[in-house]
Amino acid sequence: MPKTTRRQFLAAVGATGAVVALERAPVFAQKRELTLLSNNHFVPASDDELRRQAEVFGKQAGIAVRVDTIAGLQLPAKRAAEAQSQTGHDLVFLSHADPFLFENNLVDVGPLVDTLGKKYGGWYPFAAESAQTSAGWRAVPWYWVSFPATYNVAHFRKAGLEPPKTWDELLKQGKVLKKQGNPIGIAISHTGDANTTFWAVLWGFGGKVLEADGKTPAIVSDKTAAAIEWYKEAYRDAMEPEVLSWDDASNNRGILSGKYSWIHNPISPYNTALKEKMAIADDINHHVTPAGPAGSHNSPGINALGIWKFSKNVEPAKEFIQFLFRKENFDAFIVGGMGFNMAPLRNLAEHPIWSKNPKLAMLPREAEFAHARGWPSRPNDAVRRVENNYVLPDMVAKTLNGMPTKRAMEWAQAQVVDALKGQLKPAG
User: Fold this and answer.
1) Which of 116, 148, 239, 403 is least enclosed, having the fewest CB within 10 Å?
2) Which fold has domain 6-146+300-369?
3) Does the global pTM surpass 0.70?
């Protein structure tokens, strides 16, 4: 009887859609294990769903699949150690600049990206920005987390206001809302949210940190100055001093407490309110990130899957990624993540979890003006260092403490120069 290869086995399974029952696992399945290193998702059910899909794929493909998840803060060191030692997992969770930082260690997945794009309506523009390096596609964009505006409808209604469409409108409304006792809240501190919102505001005013070449500092400009002046006025007239010491959970607590009227954040406060059956859930709603003179822009978390070159399971790893992107599987992944897991492919973004809830219906639209951190430059090591050292929110904070705007920009630009030289420490 001719020997059945694993590829032939997968083809048979795909044709029938059935799980083939075998009396015993093939020899190669007994000896091989496909492994994935990922982060602990902030919605545990998402990791449960990922492991369920890994188990199903493993049974169909005749290969054991193990998903290891660790705390997000531990992931950079673990990735670096695996790249250095050339040992570890087959697949690895990547975010922000990682596909560029590890491009020499990652398998080219261009054909797979092309196949998925053609099958599911094409990739959103940020996909290439975040995973296509000068050497090619070094990762498959997996999911992104929408970062819209979250607001309290009751507070806005009491002030006779509609949700803002621009940063200028938010500034004007914030002044009214603060006088009403309901300030707006934007972190200006050493926290991830502070970086995320600053990119959106900076781009909205036409500013940038680096030129498109990724080598030329570009912070010092009239457009960056306009973004800083916006922050200064918003802080003085629409916020509370506590935003200078916020962590990533502070804005969630602020909006859920009923005090704050507006924050820039994923849908976690709303999901928490629903889960805890909090009355304030009825008052929470969302709208797209405001626009500036240079249009609408945002910098959501963009995550991808890469395959290490040292992996001995490159082909099974590619097949597992394809399996995860089957519509029925990605739909289940979206549900498992309670709407946090957004598809980077246009046709997979259409899911009833958003369309059935008017408060979530706008979330997929954020993809149309999302960018990778550093844009118009591609992500790189310098951008990562700037973010990890919170150079951008610190630049704003210095002006709030009296430093002239021009001098603060020059300080930040000097930090960027150090980052480009690798002299700014890699972790803040």
Assistant:
1) 403
2) D-Maltodextrin-Binding Protein; domain 2 (3.40.190)
3) yes
